[in-house]
Every structure is written in C-alpha cells, then in structure tokens.
Design brief:
Layout lengths: L1 H5 L8 H11 L3 E3 L6 E3 L1 H20 L3 E2 L5 E3 H4 L3 H7 L4 E5 L2 E3 L6 E3 L4 E8 L4 H11 L8 E10 L13 E11 L2 H21 L6 E4 L11 E8 L5 E11 L1 H5 L3 E3 L5 E3 L1 E8 L1 H10 L16 E5 L4 H20 L4 E3 L7 H10 L4 E5 L1 H6 L1 E6 L5 E5 L3 H26 L1 E3 L3 H8 L4 E5 L4 H11 L2 E6 L7 E2 L6 E2 L2 E5 L3
Parallel strand pairs: 3-9, 17-18, 17-19, 22-23
Antiparallel strand pairs: 1-2, 4-8, 5-8, 6-7, 9-10, 10-16, 11-12, 11-24, 12-13, 13-16, 14-15, 19-20, 20-21, 23-27, 24-27, 25-26
Helix pairs in contact: 3-7
C-alpha cells in the first residue's frame, strides 16, 4: 500500500493526473471495455448509495414520488421541441436494428439488415420528451395536478472526451419531472428543488455552493430558466453541481398536454425538471481530498470508523475483539457506521495506509499496551492528527468528533472558495486574474455576443447570475456598455 501511495501523483505536480490516480487507487471506479463508460466499484457505489438515500428522503419530504420511464425514446419525440433536440442532437446514441445473426463468413455475429426498425430509438440523454408524452395520458383536469415524479436512472450522452465520474458516455442520476396548473407553482417548484440541492451539497457533501441563474447561452435546452448550484474545486475550476429548470409550457405545447383549469377553460400545463448525477462523486473528490488520498465527509463515507487490532497472538486478538465488539454495538446505537478489520493477510501499517487513501474519517488502533492502559489510538482523516485517549466514553467522543470533522471539511472548502473569489473591473485585469483560477465577479452587458467572445478568448464561461449577488449597475468590462449587475465567471469542468 505504501507503494500505491507513492505512485499517487501530487495535486501540485499534476492536478488532473492526481484526480485520475485517486479514483482508481482508492477503488472508486475504473474504465470499462466500452469506450467512454465506467465501472463503478463497490466502494465508489457505496458513496453513491449514501447520496441517493439522503436525496431520496429529501425529495419524498417535499412530496415527490419515484417512478420509472423507458430507456428508449422514439426519434420523432425529440423532434417535437426544437431547442431541446438542437441541444442534445450531437450527443445521442441511436438504435437502428433489433436483431443480430451469425456472419455467413464465420466471423461471429453481424447486424441483420432485415431487422431495421421502422423508427429509430434514441437512448435517453434526458427524459423530458418520453415523460411528457406519458403525462398527456395522466392529465385532464386541474384536479390531476400537480404531478411530482422523480426517477433514478442511467442516461447516455455520447461524450468524446471522458473522465471518470465527471464526464462519461453513460452515467447515473436522478431526474425530477413535475407538472403544475400555474406558472407561479412551477417557478416555486424549480426554486424549491434548487434549495434542496444546495442544502444537500452543504450539509452532507460539506461543499459550499453559489446558487444562481444560468445565462441564456448556458441554459438547459428547452428551458425558460435554469437555476444552478456552482462549486469551486481545489484547482480553481468551477463545477456545476446541480440544476433545476423552469420549462414553462414548452413541453406541454410540444406534446399537447392541456387541462381544464378552475375557470373551466383549457390551458397548457406548466413544467419543471431537475437533476444531479454521479458527477457529485467527482466534486466530492476534487473539493476535499489531498495528497494522501480521499477525504470524505462523515455523512457520506461508506463507513465512518475503522478499527484495526494490533496483536502478536490469538489470545491478544481475542481480548481486543471483545472490547471492540462492545464498542461497535455502542457506536451502532449512536448511528455511527463502523468496520472492524481483523483480517490476518495484511499488516496493520498496510491497513492504515489503505484506509487513509480511502478517506475513512476516523481510524482506531488497539494493541496489547492499549488493553493494559485502557486506551486506544485515534486518528482523524481530515487533519491526520493522532491522539491516545481513554477507552471509557470513546463512543460519545467519536460521535462528536465526526460532527467536528464534517464542519471542519466544510469550513476549509468555504475558506478556500472565499480566497479565490475576486471582483474585477477591466477585461485586462480579468485575463490576468483568470490565470490564478477561482470565481471572478465582473460586469457584463447581457449580450450573448459578448459572452461568446469572452469564452472564445479566455475559455471562461458565465457560471451563473448569483441569486444573492451584487445588483449594483456598472459598465461591461469588455464593451463598456451598461451592465445591470455583476455575474460570476470561471473556467470549469
């Protein structure tokens, strides 16, 4: 394991390689035999399960229910909403045939040309179209509204440049799709789900986020408004961590989803959609981890405490195990997840390095001397600090320590974001400061032409118009034209 750590590229040397090394060496995921797709390994999937479980509870607390919709979407459905199809056309995987046959030349199997589909099927890049074609059958009256559905699913977007968790051809996510009787209700829903995402990011991921609205250029294809949460990674690049879209009546009109309102008149339904994906695992890694490996917030760690016995013989192991079992039972009653690693095929030093690499928040080590003294060695992963403490009352100490670690990880990330967020007032200053990374708050004249110019010349994009941002009018840093407010720029993933 020491060799594994030695081979972990440092953040300072090559941040991108450090990330790739860490994902693989911490046993989170690996590239698959299918180009651009990943295998999420058990430890990585355990993190996703923790995220999924918490988010699912939060969705249900706000009145949402889970459903499931088809993986395949008829091509004609995508054609019905012009902005939507334009936004996703270049990323779509298309099914054209439904059967294989043996190659007459004996070279395995080939596509049977006689099995061509009458209409091609798109492997879903997102589900608005298939869901709104379904909602048409569910909605006749205002009494059928609202519909508050979410689905946990996989989607396919045919990415050319992929990176584990951050951008893959297939990824896991949840997508909420809701239908409402009024514009006000739909807007309230979109904003409510943005708050849910922000709460999850900050309270569970220990990830400070900026809540904002996307510019027209960065808006979701087919949306009237896109709300987002933006996070800052340790290399000074931004990451979009979640989005919530107010779709207006666009999809209802595309699929002719009308209802009889309270005034007994026909109207089109108002819609939202919102989602987060396994990209959040990438955010978790890049926001908190260090050159020793993962640093996981306790609320999302697959297990929060690992206990490693240090012994010379079976008698010592038996005595340590008796102590540990009692402690594990106490921790379990406090809601703390714990692993006892008494395997005999690896030395304690190897185990210490492995759990440090995997970001386990608290590590306990107990040996013969600890048994005699009634003590245990404790190490916290966020600071790598060690202490030898009394075994009595340790369960409550660990419970409090986990809360402290969660808060400390958040505070560290918040302090970093604050340190790399600056105001700039000229385009030249913008270009200089951009090389240092971070968020840059600047005036922009509100035109897509200026936005595109900045992106082409600097590779920076408008991350959002912050909901609590500076609304003081000024002049655009590029054109000198009037600007209604400052917006947030950054280079991003």
């Amino acid at each position: 394991m020491a060799k594994e750590l030695k081979e972990l590229t440092s953040r300072e040397e090559n941040y991108s390689q450090w990330y790739n090394d860490l994902v693989v060496k911490a046993d989170l995921a690996e590239n698959s035999a299918v180009r651009g797709c990943m295998v999420i390994k058990p430890y990585g999937y355990a993190i996703w399960e923790k995220m999924q479980r918490q988010l699912d509870d939060m969705f249900k607390e706000t009145g949402h229910v889970n459903a499931y919709f088809p993986l395949f979407i008829p091509k004609s459905f995508l054609s019905k909403e012009a902005d939507h199809v334009e936004g996703f056309a270049k990323e779509c995987a298309v099914v054209t045939h439904y059967r294989l046959k043996n190659d007459p030349n004996g070279s395995g199997v080939v596509v049977d040309p006689e099995a061509k589909l009458d209409e091609e099927l798109i492997v879903r890049p997102t589900s608005e179209t298939i869901i709104w074609s379904t909602y048409k059958n569910w909605i006749q009256s205002y009494r059928d509204l609202p519909i508050l559905c979410n689905q946990w699913a996989n989607v396919v977007r045919w990415e050319m440049r992929t990176r584990l968790f951050l951008r893959t051809a297939e990824f896991l996510w949840q997508e909420g799709h809701t239908a409402h009787a009024t514009e006000a209700e739909a807007l309230e829903e979109a904003r409510k789900m943005l708050e849910v995402y922000a709460q999850f990011a900050e309270e569970y991921m220990a990830l400070p986020v900026v809540k904002g609205v996307k510019s027209a250029n960065e808006r979701f294809a087919g949306a009237v408004e896109t709300f987002c949460i933006e996070a800052m990674m340790q290399d000074g690049k931004a990451l979009q961590a979640g989005t919530s879209h107010f779709l207006g009546q666009n999809f209802a009109k595309a699929f002719d989803v009308q209802f009889v309102n309270k005034e007994n008149k026909l109207d089109y339904v108002w819609a939202t959609s919102w989602g987060v994906s396994t990209r959040l695992i990438g955010a978790l890694i890049m926001a908190h981890s260090d050159n020793n490996g993962l640093v996981l917030p306790p609320k999302l760690a697959p297990f929060q405490v690992v206990i490693v016995p240090i012994y010379k013989n079976e008698e010592q192991l038996s005595l340590i195990s008796d102590k540990v079992r009692a402690l594990m039972a106490e921790l379990k009653t406090l809601g703390v997840s714990v692993k006892y690693d008494d395997s005999d095929n690896k030395k304690p030093g190897w185990k210490f390095a492995e759990y440090e690499l995997k970001g386990v928040p608290v590590r306990l080590a107990m040996g013969a001397r600890d048994l005699e003294n009634g003590t245990v060695e404790l190490m916290r992963r966020d600071t790598l600090e060690k202490e030898t403490i009394s075994f009595d009352g340790i369960a409550q100490h660990i419970k409090q320590l986990l809360d402290d670690i969660q808060k400390n990880i958040y505070t560290k990330a918040l302090n970093f974001r604050t340190s790399v967020t600056r105001e700039v007032n000229s385009y030249e200053e913008f270009k200089v400061e951009l090389e240092k990374g971070g968020f840059l708050s600047a005036h922009w004249d509100g035109t897509p032409e200026t936005e595109e110019r900045i992106k082409a010349e600097t590779k920076a994009t408008i991350r959002c118009l912050p909901l609590d941002g500076d609304l003081t009018p000024g002049v655009c840093m590029v054109t000198g034209k009037p600007s209604a407010r400052r917006v947030l720029f950054a280079r991003s993933y």
